[in-house]
């Protein structure tokens, strides 16, 4: 690690203007600036407000079902024959993924701010489902923007959102995936800024979103840290998480950031392989730029146009990444790697067959890399994979790959 | 004094209002843009806003989104857009040209390189939709040093404090976004615009041009009553979309769109 991190440095992450070093910030059109300033002002109070925090904790416990277990994958560990492999079971959350930690937090925030209309973007549909769910829970109007291509890939989640009372808007512009859904959500926001709260699904977007999403997701790492000490008497040697926008990864990493001996590894979507250019791995193969309100690593062409991405998992199919990950990469505190579609699919099958835990295809990327890594570690070492979501939503994709009609 | 400032001052002295059309560079084809720019000037434009196409135009409605897609199909790059301005300048040394777009293509080129090349090509001002003054501390001085006006947006949601702060960072003119929404949407409320422009005028001496929702002679004239300039975008870009394959028809149609706005603005001035 090249830079020694301290508490004092963390307090500047982000700084007052939402910068993580050179990353982050607030790059939006003027119409949104006042709304973001108000959100920041209110949130800075609420994040220390005992009533708000108590309400958030209560929702996490009784509605989301936290804490989620830290589970020792014994059969997998003995098959691999390296480090002990632990699974942080975010897939056991209500709605089947980590996303709800954030949506319940932001929906409470919206309620505290008196905003009754909620918008969200979604890729795989997990964030959309988690948003529609909490809107049903709190009686809020919900609009979800989703790329037309993702709507096809994730029809089950689309139907779930509709059952939950949300209106799903198909986005047909651009590449018809997550980035375009986010563009369209921002267009709605700028139009309805007075009464609308935008629940962003990942640790990206203009300040204060990367901060508040990190706050809400950090419960993952805090629990993991405590459970790890309880179960093994020590901190894990490594924590792994898949990285699309990076919310489950930041949630896992952040509470370990000062624990220098804990390796933090983010696994990006290598698609058909980094060398093909058909992937979604900006930290592995992109460069810094500005998109969706923040400066961060992006996939772009030499003219600054955002590049199309490819991943078998819709949730990782995004050309950017949260700005804090860009910072963590540059200072060397976290490592970012990628695995291909094929490796992820193998990881999916292996975990499903060996442990009876069917991960989301996004999560399967972290699983695939963890298996390679664990093999090279010793049996007295511990490795934690953040099982960010369950794989039920991907059944159709898997069946298609296997040539089966379900 | 910059070319933009000169132009706006001379209009003001004549009691006239600036007509500022917007088109997306490279739409429908990179080869068509320079001729369209000359057409707009011949039909009454005082200042041209040339959109730099971007893959993710978050502040734009479907009309300009599709214009970006048409331009990008032909690979229109920022470098090419600068080439278009350079070519335009060969025959028109006077009409100010403002580049309007999103930050990332400029960031990819490098701000210093961009500012120098833009100046060299004959660009007069730069308006970056997703660069509020808070993030412009490094960039705006580079523009200024290259002699480019940094034009900023104000919106109905901009507080008085911000109006003052933003005006302090900008030069050339203020682009007042007439309503909350994306380009090409309906929502122009002239009374509301009037109130806000008056508010802005109390806080800055910069000329105020108003954009979003101006689509014909009537709306141009009524906004022209309160503002120093009117910006017309989506209605022209839509005209370009309708006549993509026939340049003659396109030029006629653009003239038919723009000329009545010019006449309505000038009629108002001579009253």
UniProtKB/TrEMBL annotation, chain A:
Catalytic activity reported: (1S,2R)-1-C-(indol-3-yl)glycerol 3-phosphate + L-serine = D-glyceraldehyde 3-phosphate + L-tryptophan + H2O
Enzyme Commission no: 4.2.1.20
Residues with N6-(pyridoxal phosphate)lysine modification: 99
InterPro entries per the UniProt record, alphabetical: Trp_synth_b_CS (IPR006653), Trp_synth_beta (IPR006654), Trp_synth_beta/beta-like (IPR023026), TrpB-like_PALP (IPR001926), TrpB-like_PALP_sf (IPR036052)
Transmembrane segments: none
Enzyme class: lyase
Names of required cofactors: pyridoxal 5'-phosphate
NCBIfam families: trpB (TIGR00263)
Family under the similarity heading: Belongs to the TrpB family.
Quaternary structure, from the entry: Tetramer of two alpha and two beta chains.
Protein name listed in UniProt: Tryptophan synthase beta chain
Gene: trpB
UniProtKB/TrEMBL annotation, chain B:
Keyword Lyase: yes
CDD domains: Tryptophan_synthase_alpha (cd04724)
Gene3D superfamilies: Aldolase class I
EC assignment: 4.2.1.20
GO molecular function, one term: tryptophan synthase activity
Highest taxon of source: Bacteria
InterPro entries (UniProt xref): Aldolase_TIM (IPR013785), RibuloseP-bd_barrel (IPR011060), Trp_synthase_alpha_AS (IPR018204), Trp_synthase_suA (IPR002028)
One cellular-component annotation, GO: cytosol
Catalytic activity: (1S,2R)-1-C-(indol-3-yl)glycerol 3-phosphate + L-serine = D-glyceraldehyde 3-phosphate + L-tryptophan + H2O
Record pathway: Amino-acid biosynthesis; L-tryptophan biosynthesis; L-tryptophan from chorismate: step 5/5
Signal peptide, first to last residue: none
Active-site residue numbers: 49, 60
SUPFAM superfamilies the record matches: Ribulose-phoshate binding barrel (SSF51366)
TM ranges: none
One Pfam match: Trp_syntA
Classification via HAMAP family: Trp_synth_alpha
PANTHER family tied to this protein: TRYPTOPHAN SYNTHASE ALPHA CHAIN, CHLOROPLASTIC, TRYPTOPHAN SYNTHASE, ALPHA CHAIN
Family recorded in the similarity comment: Belongs to the TrpA family.
Subunit structure, interactors included: Tetramer of two alpha and two beta chains.
Protein name: Tryptophan synthase alpha chain
Species: Tamilnaduibacter salinus
High-level lineage: Bacteria, Pseudomonadati, Pseudomonadota, Gammaproteobacteria, Pseudomonadales
Gene: trpA
């Amino acid at each position: 690690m090249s830079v020694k991190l301290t508490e004092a440095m963390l307090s500047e992450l982000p700084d007052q203007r939402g910068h993580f070093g050179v990353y982050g910030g607030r790059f939006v059109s003027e119409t949104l600036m006042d709304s973001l300033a108000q959100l920041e002002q209110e949130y800075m109070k609420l994040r220390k407000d005992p009533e708000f925090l108590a309400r958030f904790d209560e929702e996490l416990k009784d509605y989301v079902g936290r804490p989620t277990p830290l589970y020792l994958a014994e059969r997998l560990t003995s098959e691999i024959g390296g480090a002990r492999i632990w699974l942080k079971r975010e897939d056991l959350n209500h709605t089947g993924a980590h996303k709800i930690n954030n949506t319940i937090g932001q929906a409470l925030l919206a309620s505290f701010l008196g905003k009754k209309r909620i918008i969200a973007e979604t890729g795989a549909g997990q964030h959309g489902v988690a948003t529609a769910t909490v809107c049903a829970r709190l009686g809020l109007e919900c609009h979800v923007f989703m790329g037309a291509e993702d709507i096809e890939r994730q029809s089950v989640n689309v139907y779930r959102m509709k059952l939950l009372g949300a209106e799903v808007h198909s986005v047909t512009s651009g590449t018809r995936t997550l980035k375009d859904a986010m563009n369209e959500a921002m267009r709605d926001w700028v139009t309805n800024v007075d009464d609308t709260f935008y629940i962003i699904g990942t640790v990206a977007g203009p300040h204060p979103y990367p901060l508040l999403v990190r706050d809400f997701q950090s419960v993952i790492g805090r629990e993991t840290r405590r459970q790890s000490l309880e179960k093994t008497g020590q901190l894990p040697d490594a924590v792994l998480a898949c990285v699309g926008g990076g919310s489950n990864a930041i949630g896992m990493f952040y509470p370990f950031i000062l624990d220098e001996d804990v390796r933090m590894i983010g696994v990006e979507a290598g698609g058909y392989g980094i060398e093909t250019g058909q992937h979604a791995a900006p930290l592995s193969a992109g460069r810094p730029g500005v998109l969706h309100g923040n400066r961060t690593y992006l996939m772009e062409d030499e003219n600054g146009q955002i590049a199309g991405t490819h991943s078998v998992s819709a949730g990782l199919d995004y050309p950017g990444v949260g700005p804090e990950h860009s910072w963590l990469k540059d200072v060397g505190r976290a490592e970012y790697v990628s695995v291909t579609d094929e490796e992820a699919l193998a990881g999916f099958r292996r975990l499903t067959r060996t442990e009876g835990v069917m991960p989301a295809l996004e999560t399967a990327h972290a699983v695939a890399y963890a298996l390679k890594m664990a093999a090279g570690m010793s049996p007295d070492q511990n490795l934690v994979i953040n099982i960010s979501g369950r794989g039920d939503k991907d059944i159709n994709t898997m069946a298609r790959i296997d040539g089966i009609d379900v | 004094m910059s070319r933009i400032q000169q132009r706006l001052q001379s209009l003001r002295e004549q009691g006239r209002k600036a007509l500022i059309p917007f088109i997306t560079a490279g739409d429908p084809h990179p080869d068509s843009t320079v001729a369209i720019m000359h057409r707009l000037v011949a039909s009454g434009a005082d200042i041209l806003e040339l959109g730099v196409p971007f893959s993710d135009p978050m502040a734009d409605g479907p009309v300009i989104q599709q214009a970006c897609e048409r331009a990008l199909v032909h690979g229109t790059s920022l470098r090419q857009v600068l080439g278009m301005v350079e070519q335009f300048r060969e025959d028109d040394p006077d009409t100010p040209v403002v580049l309007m777009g999103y930050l990332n293509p400029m960031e990819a080129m490098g701000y210093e390189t961009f500012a120098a090349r833009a100046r060299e090509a004959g660009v007069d001002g730069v308006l970056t939709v997703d660069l509020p003054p808070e993030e412009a501390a490094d960039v705006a001085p580079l523009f200024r040093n290259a002699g480019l006006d940094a034009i900023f947006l104000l919106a109905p949601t901009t507080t008085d404090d911000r109006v003052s702060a933003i005006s302090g960072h900008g030069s050339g003119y203020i682009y007042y976004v007439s309503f909350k929404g994306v380009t090409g949407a309906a929502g122009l409320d002239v009374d509301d615009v009037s109130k806000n422009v008056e508010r802005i005028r109390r806080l800055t001496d910069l000329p105020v041009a108003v954009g979003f929702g101006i689509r014909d002679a009537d709306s141009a004239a009524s906004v022209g009553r309160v503002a120093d300039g009117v910006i017309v975008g989506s209605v022209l870009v839509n005209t370009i979309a309708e006549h993509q394959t026939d340049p003659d028809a396109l030029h006629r149609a653009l003239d038919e769109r723009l000329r009545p706005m010019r006449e309505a603005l000038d009629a108002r001035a001579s009253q």
